[in-house]
Amino acid sequence: MKIVIIGSGLAGLSAGYRLCKSNEVIVFEKDPDIGGMAASYCLEHSEKKYFIERYYHHIFRSDSELLALIRELGLEKQMLWLEAKNAYFVDGKNYPMNTPLEILHFSPLSILDLVKLGLLVFRIRLIKDTAPYDQIKAKDWILDTAGKSVYENFFAPLMKSKFGDNAENVSAAWLIGRVKIRSDRGKEGEKLGYMRGGFNSLIEALAGEITANGGEIQTTKEVTEIVIKGNSVQGVVVGGDFIACDAVISTVEPMALDAITGGKLGALHNSLQNIRYQGTACALIGLDRKLMEDGNYWLNIKADVPFGALIEHTNYLPFEDYGEHLVYVTSYFQDEKSALWTQKEEQVIDSYLRGLEKMFPGFSREEVHWTKLYRRIDTAPVYEQGYLKNVLPFAAGPSGLYLAGMFSSTNYPERSMNGSVKAGFESAELLIQEKGN
Q: Which of 28-32, 186-190, 217-221 has the least mean pLDDT?
């Protein structure tokens, strides 16, 4: 059976990995590099060559399918579980947020508010099914559960930096999913997983398995049409050429899928139009010295700067692996009119550096070795109130068309690398069930 997979992110490569041993698999990737949102830069400093992700990534202990895949590929020796220190920057001050005692010293909240925050987190941990919270706005649920001060002084800035103007429309289901995935902490705080050498090893191992079993991965090849006739997939059009196939697994974002299927997905058309994605402008900066001298890995920010979070990679991974200090500066944007999308790369980088100068008076641009900026308009769904009804099925309707990606049920109510691996596996397994082989 000949199977075309559109997109070489984790969902697409995981599906290809599951299918390549018994089928003819072709993966088409529109970008020059494979990996999608998990793609990496290859950099060199002081004659040390290394890979680092374009967007920051890590693994949670609950990511069972991803961890099993890493073991299956013989990469488990690269796994590290390291302390990841977090803080919240508010009104010019860093507040550590790793242990219950540290959180009790978060002075923007009163003792009563901190108790309410703790009770809210405890309540979230007890929630098994997030579906009933899909129709409730996160803002309303926080206000009802913990009060105005907890919302305005703790959650609102975080949600604003994550979802911009859509922050007040995000569902309580997303909030619950987000808190649950980040609240697996011991007395010493949170430990996160990472692959020494970067997740490029995982991407290359998956791609290697596909090609070793006779599959193809073609980059700079954009699928412009999925040809559907008689409610059945006939093939795809790539670079003006028709390529016949028995099945297609698409991992492209919903509106792009609607375009390349010509609106032929019937009942799914509305869902494809209703799932809104947001963009990300993620800068990676190489530095002479630490930016966050207190050892923080992740810094959420409530300040008048053009970014919502700082992630100092080398406050998490050993500096020796890279030979220089690495910091991500990241912000989300909601539409193509955003300055983060329309401005030239050097303008965005300049605005980020000005923000760093404002937050860290001791920071100097002379300490910057280099900067990289990677941005996409379609990096993540916006989990709005009522999002659940738009979650896309693995089978799209027409015979032979399957879907996997951040829009899949495995990535609801919060996306993750694990969710994308699961989506790829589930789409592949359904294809095998329905098509045989």
A: 186-190
